Amino acid sequence: MSETAKRYIDEYFGQTDITELVRTYGSPLYVYQEALLRRRCREMQQLVQGVPFAAHYSVKANTNLELLRIARDEGLHADAMSPGEILALEAAGYDADAIFFIPNNISRDELRFAADRGILISVDSLDQLDLLGSVQPGGRVSLRLNLGIGAGHHEKVITAGDDTKFGITEAQLDQAQAIARQYQLTITGLNQHIGSLFMEPAPYLAAAERLLSAARCFPDLEMIDFGGGFGIPYHKMAGEARLDLAALGSRLSEMAKRFASTWPRPLMFMTEPGRYIAAEAGLLIGTVHAVKQNGPRIYVGTDIGFNVLARPMLYDAWHDLLVIRRGRLLPQTGLETVTVTGNICESGDQIAADRPLPELRCDDLVVVLDAGAYGYSMSSNYNQRLRPAEVLLPESGRPRLIRRRDTYDDLLRGMLFPVESDPAD
Ligand code: LLP
Fold it and tell me: Residue 278: CB within 6 Å of ligand 1?
């Protein structure tokens, strides 16, 4: 593992001095590598061959405008979950026809927000279809289906099957068609998302097969979207294998080609990768501020609270950790089992529980790998803490700040105190 870790740090940082980065931009700090981001974009762009295909970056994974710009530059389209994500995409230069809106349980105003912009909207319940019909009679719509196959790294992120809030089920398809007719909506798209993070192609392909067979009942289809969920190896220091994207892609291409050859009109196929695009390009660096023994455990206290990286706390998610001391990677020798914590006032505030790591000391830097997806985008100001800066390591040139750290003014902005003007008055 020492060799793997050393290669990883050398390849990721190149000539960039990690300690200097933290000195310049503060700790904790999110860092993104442009070359890796572009590589993942290209892999996803090439996933399906032989039919019209667009990979839509699911921007909830990371909404930094610079990352959105790079993904667009690589030719990706995008899927958005909220008006805020649509605004971010517009700011990064995406046209309406490169955006697919896939919301859940939204208001009339939010539907109108996307409809007024000419963005294709997916609805995932009969009530939302009815609402969209009243907002945009005679318009086009995509239906998000839940055809019973789910997958994901944690029950909280499995988004199809019996036990989730998502999607229109097979049993509701006739009703959906009736509502669409009532408002003269044309169902031009079908989409699904089975959940987040699968490492084997099988569930995704089985679900894709089901979607294609449901598609036969929708004669006006112009688009079929198989969803996201493509996993990345979070245990890469232990040699975890990558998802076999080539195998998945060639099976998916075969299925899509077969279907398209029987379809009487042009058909666009889509996917919605989020994590696969952004996770590995990003990492998070924090600083050790205290080490102590409490009861049976050694606690390493850092500034990476769960307000900065929520995944371990929310899903018991694993992130590989590496330790840098005075600019050098510590070798994986003399390991001791420690629990790495943050600076938030809850006992669950842990980045890693009972993890074998080199003996840590104050001022060591902890590097959290694969933090580019659902890292910053799920961060918060809990405990009135500042969200960190984000820095890009460009393909050439010096590191560049792409989001400044919060300021203490940011934390107070928006609170009406002392009471001066209430917008409701
Ligand atoms: N499409 C839809 C409709 C989604 O809801 C999602 C993710 C995606 C695509 C992208 O999924 P991906 O390719 O990134 O797996 N916070 C969790 C993951 C939540 C995913 C939510 N939806 C985590 O940190 O693991």
Answer: no
